[in-house]
Amino acid sequence: MSDPAPAPEPDRTPEAEAHLFQERLRQTGQLVDVAEGDDTSQLPAHVTHVRYPDGTVKRIRFTGPGHR
User: Fold this and answer.
1) CA distances (Å), 3 to each of 6, 10, 38, in order?
2) What are phi and psi of 45, to 5 degrees?
3) Fewer Cβ in 10 A, N or C end of the chain?
4) What is the rounded CA–CA span in Å between residue 37 and residue 15?
5) How many separate helices (H) and strands (E) can be counted in the chain?
6) How many whole angstroms separate alpha carbon 52 and alpha carbon 37?
7) Planar angle of CA 68, 18, 21, nearest 5 degrees
8) Contact at 8 Å (CB) between 25 and 31?
9) What is the pLDDT of residue 7?
10) pLDDT tens, position by position, for the chain (68 residues)?
11) How far apart, in whole angstroms, are the C-alpha atoms of residue 21 and residue 27?
12) Residue 51, exposed/middle/buried by CB under 10 A (0-12, 13-18, 19+)?
């Protein structure tokens, strides 16, 4: 007799998915904290997202094939 299949992980909420995504971006250096009014065009090219003091996260540039 075979072992029963492992129980599937419970579905994550959209908020939990967003938190995990942002954490991965932060760990890879793609997400940095900025102050309101900072010039994000001066950030290194690998930074693709910024987080403002109020917690808002915005994408500032795209990376990948076809984007420079």
Assistant:
1) 9, 20, 56
2) -60, -30
3) N
4) 26
5) 1, 3
6) 9
7) 50
8) yes
9) 56
10) 566 666 556 788 999 999 999 999 999 999 999 999 999 999 999 999 999 999 999 999 886 555 45
11) 10
12) middle
pLDDT of the residue at 35: 97
Residue showing tokens 């909420």: 13
* Residue pointed to by tokens 């065009």: 41
Q: Is 43 exposed, middle or buried (0-12, 13-18, 19+ CB in 10 A)?
A: middle
Residues in a beta bridge with 33: 51
**Strand 49-51 versus strand 31-33 pairing type:** parallel
Q: Using a cut of 0.85, tell me whether the model's pTM lies above it.
A: no
At 28 the pLDDT is 95
Name the residue type at position 50.
V
